[in-house]
Every structure is written in structure tokens, then in C-alpha cells.
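Per your request, structure below.
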């Protein structure tokens, strides 16, 4: 009798486990290498929603967008996070997304709502700026460059590592800053500027991770370049508690930084559209928005989100960042990148 009861209980437990597994949805998030979220914050969402989130990182943001377009007929995930305003038009033209207007957008400034059809949702923003190794400049007794043009001077020869705009979104953002500063026509254009950077031994990498953690003196023990194209929000990452100071700083002079906004979108072909909507709402929640600054070193778009003290002190915001219409970028991006490639890499 006990044996029959035991077997019946085991079958019941197995059945409940099977039903629970069937009730659980796995949502795949396609994103860039820099994506991060506190485990407890993500776990709380999963427990409350019954959704398991699988994170698929596929390189730099530019590489991620390219992968999403190439796999459009058989999407690699249910949603995409990390596309920015430099690559936005490419994704919109490829018709990658299912529109969704989150009710949480009521707490987001309208300046971040670039797509009127809500194919994508703004999640965060930051400014692509030049970062530098404070200790290097103090040791070598060299003045920190105060403008983009300063980088062409002989005292900065071999000090800069920049990013390929064809494969890197911050690389493309920095290219946009040089175009805004020097223009495409006249006696001295952005291509003249890049020609001078090449003559001054600029190093180009394919992505931000390779540049920052491979070539930058404060990102790698083997790094030799004390100036890197990164973010103004990268500075808090280098804060050392014992010294009560950051080891890097950013150059935020007028027209040296580019305002970058990152978006999330639901990929067409997803079988979990409703769950993806829930995750976008979660990404705009205070829990996620207040977690982002010290996890991904970006500013939240939710105007109710509070910033960590270290972020307020060290993540400086430029007064006049470059802001370029993403439709203008779309009209000229490929030509600008092609001309840059022929000037810098050939």
C-alpha cells in the first residue's frame, strides 16, 4: 500500500515539475558585450514574471546590429538591447522590430524618443568622449589635450587608441564628433583631421573592449595608449576607494563628445512578444534604471531614477555634446565610413 502511495506521489511531483517547466518561458536577449545587470535585480524579475532570461552577447554594438540583420529570417533572440542612435536607422530600414509603446515612457524625457513609431524604446544614454590616464600625464608632465585638434600635435604622437566606425558604435559616434567639428567641405575637413591622426600614429581597433581593456594604459597591464575613445561615464569605473579618487578622467570640451542613446526593441519573429514587452517595462523600471549606472556605466533615461554618489561626482556631462539627427546619419553614414576607411586603413 505504501509503495503504491509512494509511486503515486512521485508521479504527481513529476507531473507538477513538468507543468511548471512548461509554464516557464525563456526569453533570449540579444545584446552587446558590455551588458550587465545585478544578479538579484534580474532574479527578482524572473521570479515575479515567471520568465527566464537568457542573455546572448555578440560583440560590440555595431557587430550586434549586423548579426541581427543577417539573421533576420531566423532571429537569434526575442529582443535586442544596445542599438544606439548611430546605428538606429540601419536597423529601422531593415525592419527588425515589432512596435511597442511602454506605459513606463511617461517618466522618460521626450528628447530620447527618436522613433515616433516606437519600434525601439530608449533605455539609457551616455557621451562618447576621450578618456585619459591621469597618472601618465602627471608623470610625463604633458598637458591634457583640450580639443580634438590638439591630438594632431607632436606631443600626443602614439598616445591615442580609437575605434573602427564600421564595426563599433562608439567608434562611429567619435567619427560623428569629428565630422561635426571639422565638416565635410572646406580647407580642413574631417578627412584631413584623420589623415593627421594617422600621421601622429593613432591606433585603430575593431571594438571598445579591445581598445579599453587591451590598449589603454588604465584598462590593461600591457596597454601603452593613455588616451582612448570611451565614455564620460567610464570614469567611475576607475574609482579606487582607498585613494578616494578615479585614475582616469574625460575630456568634455565643446564638440569633443557625442551624445549616444541606447535602445531596446522586440525582434520580428519572436514567439514571446508579450514577455519581451514585460522585459522592456522592467528595463524602464526604477529597479533596473538605478542598477545600470554602476553595472554598465550609463545614465538612466527614467527621470525618477537616482544616481549613485560616485556617479554624480565622476561621470561628468559635457555642456555641448554633439547631437546629430539619426536620419542625417542614415543619409551619409556609409559614405562617411567608406571615405574614412580609405583614408585611415588603406
Amino acid at each position: 500500500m505504501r509503495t503504491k502511495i509512494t509511486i503515486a506521489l512521485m508521479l504527481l511531483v513529476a507531473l507538477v515539475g513538468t507543468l511548471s517547466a512548461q509554464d516557464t518561458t525563456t526569453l533570449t536577449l540579444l545584446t552587446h558585450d558590455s551588458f550587465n545587470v545585478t544578479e538579484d535585480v534580474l532574479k527578482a524579475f524572473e521570479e515575479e514574471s515567471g520568465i527566464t532570461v537568457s542573455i546572448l552577447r555578440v560583440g560590440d554594438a555595431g557587430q550586434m546590429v549586423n548579426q541581427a540583420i543577417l539573421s533576420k529570417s531566423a532571429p537569434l533572440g526575442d529582443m535586442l538591447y544596445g542599438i544606439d542612435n548611430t546605428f538606429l536607422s540601419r536597423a529601422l530600414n531593415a525592419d527588425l522590430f515589432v512596435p511597442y509603446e511602454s506605459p513606463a515612457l511617461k517618466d522618460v524625457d521626450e528628447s530620447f524618443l527618436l522613433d515616433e513609431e516606437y519600434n525601439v524604446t530608449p533605455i539609457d544614454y551616455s557621451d562618447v568622449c576621450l578618456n585619459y590616464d591621469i597618472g601618465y600625464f602627471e608623470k610625463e608632465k604633458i598637458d591634457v589635450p583640450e580639443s580634438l585638434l590638439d591630438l594632431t600635435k607632436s606631443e600626443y604622437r602614439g598616445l591615442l587608441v580609437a575605434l573602427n566606425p564600421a564595426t563599433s558604435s562608439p567608434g562611429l559616434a567619435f567619427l560623428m564628433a569629428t565630422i561635426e567639428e571639422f565638416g565635410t567641405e572646406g580647407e580642413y575637413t574631417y578627412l584631413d583631421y584623420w589623415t593627421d591622426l594617422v600621421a601622429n600614429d593613432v591606433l585603430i581597433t575593431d571594438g571598445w573592449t579591445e581598445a579599453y581593456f587591451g590598449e589603454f594604459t588604465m584598462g590593461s597591464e600591457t596597454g601603452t595608449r593613455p588616451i582612448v575613445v570611451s565614455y564620460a561615464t567610464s570614469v567611475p569605473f576607475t574609482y579606487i576607494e582607498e585613494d578616494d579618487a578615479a585614475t582616469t578622467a574625460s575630456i568634455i570640451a565643446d564638440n569633443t563628445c557625442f551624445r549616444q542613446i541606447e535602445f531596446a526593441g522586440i525582434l520580428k519573429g519572436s514567439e514571446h512578444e508579450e514577455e519581451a514587452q514585460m522585459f522592456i517595462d522592467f528595463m524602464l523600471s526604477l529597479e533596473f534604471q538605478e542598477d545600470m549606472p554602476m553595472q554598465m556605466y550609463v545614465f538612466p533615461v527614467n527621470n525618477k531614477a537616482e544616481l549613485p554618489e560616485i556617479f554624480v561626482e565622476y561621470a561628468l556631462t559635457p555642456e555641448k555634446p554633439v547631437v546629430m539627427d539619426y536620419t542625417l546619419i542614415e543619409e551619409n553614414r556609409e559614405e562617411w565610413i567608406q571615405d574614412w576607411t580609405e583614408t585611415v586603413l588603406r
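The CA atoms of residues 171 and 329 lie 14 Å apart.

Regards,
D.
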